[in-house]
Amino acid sequence: MANIAPIAFDNNPNDFKDDSLLKFPIGVKLVRVKGCGCKGLRKCTTDKCSNFFQKTECQSRCACGNRKFSKTRKVFKYAVQMAGDNKGWGLFATKRIEAGEFIIAYVGDVITKEEKDRRFEEYKNRGIKHNYMIQAGKYHIDPTFYGNKARFANHCCDPNVIVEKWTMDRAPQGFKALAFVACKPIEEGQEITFNYKFDYNKENAQPCHCDAGNKCNKWIGKAPPKN
Ligand SMILES: C[S@@+](CC[C@H](N)C(=O)[O-])C[C@H]1O[C@@H](n2cnc3c(N)ncnc32)[C@H](O)[C@@H]1O
Ligand SMILES: [Zn+2]
Ligand SMILES: [Zn+2]
Ligand SMILES: [Zn+2]
């Protein structure tokens, strides 16, 4: 990969293909999820639904409301804006978002850990300074060149989003879909952030420039070991 020139990648938020569908590895078996079997109104967005309780999305034939990832959305409450020289682009609320509200799924290429390690080296050699790859069960999601706007969400040590891990219908065994859910109300104009929870790795450790004041850990994820 050494023959590829570094690219001015982070100057343009459109340097990636914006799409809302996860791309699973070719040839991997996609596993079906059973319907929940709930009776009555079948909203199925509370723990009374056995699938919802287990953070498992129902399949379309179930025709219930437990379709966080797959239902077509009409309202989007986020936009990409510059978050500052230290952080690059960020994801910002364009409308108030209530605590507990689903905002967006983290979408990109679904890759194995081995492929993630390979791409990590490749991206480093290409001069890509931002790391977009996140663990998703036994796989990783890579939205570096293909994904949705969730890839712009920055890390914060005191975030307003938690990332829920869900089992999805027609996904590889062991894959977890990642849902951004507000853990507190987010006002219009506020930055949407989550805790990357990266393990410390001196190869890719990055200082944190979040605005959490004395709650900031000074590093994105774990701090370097003392000594
Ligand atoms: C998933 S990307 C977020 C979008 C990125 N800011 C951009 O411009 O495309 C993660 C990268 O953003 C930067 N970043 C995210 N949160 C940060 C923070 N709290 N402080 C400093 N840099 C941050 C780091 O370069 C990190 O590897
Ligand atoms: Zn169902
Ligand atoms: Zn149900
Ligand atoms: Zn911080």
Structure write-up:
With 227 residues, this protein is mainly beta. It has one domain: Beta-clip-like (Beta Complex), CATH 2.170.270.10. Strands 1, 6, 7 and 8 form a four-stranded mixed sheet that branches. Strands 5-12-10 form a three-stranded antiparallel sheet, with no helix packed on it. A two-stranded antiparallel sheet has the order 2-11. The two termini are 35 Å apart. The N terminus is likely disordered. The site of S-adenosylmethionine has 20 residues, from strand 4 and strand 9.
Let me know the largest β-sheet: 4 strands, mixed
Straight-line distance between termini: 35 Å
Q: How confident is the prediction overall: mean pLDDT? A: 89
Tell me the CATH superfamily.
Answer: SET domain
Number of helices: 2
| Poorly predicted parts | 1-9
Would you list the SSEs in sequence order as H and E?
A: EEHEEEEHEEEEEEE
CATH architecture: Beta Complex
The CATH class label is Mainly Beta
Number of strands: 13
Structurally, the number of domains stands at: 1
Q: Give the DSSP E fraction (strand runs of 2 or more residues).
A: 15-25%
Determine the fraction of residues in helical runs and give it as a percent range: under 10%
- Rounded Rg: 18 Å
CATH level 3 topology: Beta-clip-like
Bound molecules: S-adenosylmethionine, zinc ion
Overall outline: globular
Which class of secondary structure composition applies to the elements?
A: mainly beta
Main location: nucleus
Protein name: SET domain-containing protein
GO biological process, one term: methylation
Subcellular location: Chromosome; Nucleus
